[in-house]
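Example 9 (inverse folding). The structure is encoded as follows.
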């Protein structure tokens, strides 16, 4: 029955041409000036349970998704819409992350089977994806997984209140940090990989920022979530002369930008009334935020002036929880993951 259901789901796949790697997509980059023109370009609907994680490959050619149907799927973003699917986990799959290390495209997937699975993905033939490692979390689920910017480290939030950091190549633990709660609700590396931010939920609602250049396992900063539960984290892109800025959203509709210096300081904030925000993403240029909500809202924000975030447009407001959102590394697409099992691709209208 499960196999039949999967076949039926595959037959319902719907996708329209998006772009190909060979094309020059410079004029298709989503910016603060053209967000009003962004539309839904494609719907990927072969998952038959809630999708909790989506991520693009570094070259923007592939999209990976993680869902409660126990599957990890890898999609060709280009016109064919071909996909590769495999039941890597024996439980809900809650997050996925891509990186390139030593010319090898790697995919990490995190699940409620208490595992992070590392796979080698041939970019030109993802159907030949091969599992190359398993990082056991112990007696606890894993909700979030993220690679450092250079791909050398892999971090995960473990349901026992731990943030575990591994050496990607060796697949061995490097350091373990303690969260003030058993539930990890967000995880993000800073642009140069020095800081690792972890949000934790009930019974504590703090954001712990760890300094990987420090020998101690104590947080370098603890950010007050003001009684709300932080549900998503993302660092803004930064060059070598720019201080790290961390954006946090929460289940009370709060959106705050913290600058990390000698101390962590709020430099910008706003609030979406009566909104339970679920995830946040930033574009490669660092001037455009995207947020999702439990009520199905997908909102784009202008943060070119990070002290005064401004709402630009509402892409969707249909009542269906949107669990995850991400920009493609080339800045031309947005992918969203829904509770219904749908994945949507957003971008500028096709020629």
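The amino acid assigned to each position is listed next.
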């Amino acid at each position: 029955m499960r196999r039949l259901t999967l076949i039926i789901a595959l037959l319902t796949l719907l996708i329209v041409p998006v772009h190909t790697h060979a094309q020059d997509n410079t004029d298709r980059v989503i910016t603060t000036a053209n967000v009003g023109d962004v539309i839904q370009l494609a719907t990927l609907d072969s998952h038959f349970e809630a999708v909790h994680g989506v991520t693009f490959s570094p070259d923007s050619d592939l999209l990976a998704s993680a869902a409660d149907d126990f599957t990890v799927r890898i999609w060709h973003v280009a016109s064919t819409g071909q996909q590769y699917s495999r039941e890597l986990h024996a439980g809900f799959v809650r997050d996925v992350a891509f990186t390139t290390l030593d010319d090898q495209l790697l995919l990490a997937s995190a699940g409620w089977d208490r595992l992070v699975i590392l796979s080698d993905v041939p970019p030109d033939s993802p159907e030949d994806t091969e599992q190359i490692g398993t990082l056991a979390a112990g007696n606890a689920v894993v909700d979030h997984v993220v690679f450092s910017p250079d791909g050398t480290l892999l971090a995960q939030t473990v349901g026992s209140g731990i943030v575990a950091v591994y050496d990607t190549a060796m697949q061995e633990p490097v350091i373990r940090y303690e969260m003030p709660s058993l539930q990890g609700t967000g995880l993000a590396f800073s642009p140069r990989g020095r800081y690792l931010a972890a949000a934790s939920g009930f019974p504590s609602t703090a954001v712990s920022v760890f300094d990987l250049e420090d020998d101690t396992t104590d947080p370098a900063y603890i950010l007050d979530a003001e009684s709300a539960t932080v549900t998503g984290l993302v660092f803004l892109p930064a060059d070598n002369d720019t201080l790290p800025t961390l954006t946090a959203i929460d289940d009370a509709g709060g959106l705050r930008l913290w600058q990390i210096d000698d101390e962590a300081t709020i430099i910008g904030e706003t609030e979406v009334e009566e909104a339970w925000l679920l995830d946040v993403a930033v574009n490669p240029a660092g001037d455009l935020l995207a947020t999702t909500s439990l009520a199905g809202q997908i909102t784009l924000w202008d943060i070119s002036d990070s002290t005064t975030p401004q709402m630009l447009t509402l892409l969707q407001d249909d009542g269906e929880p949107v669990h995850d959102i991400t920009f493609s590394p080339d800045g031309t697409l947005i992918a969203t993951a829904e509770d219904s099992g749908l994945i949507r691709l957003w971008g500028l209208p096709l020629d």
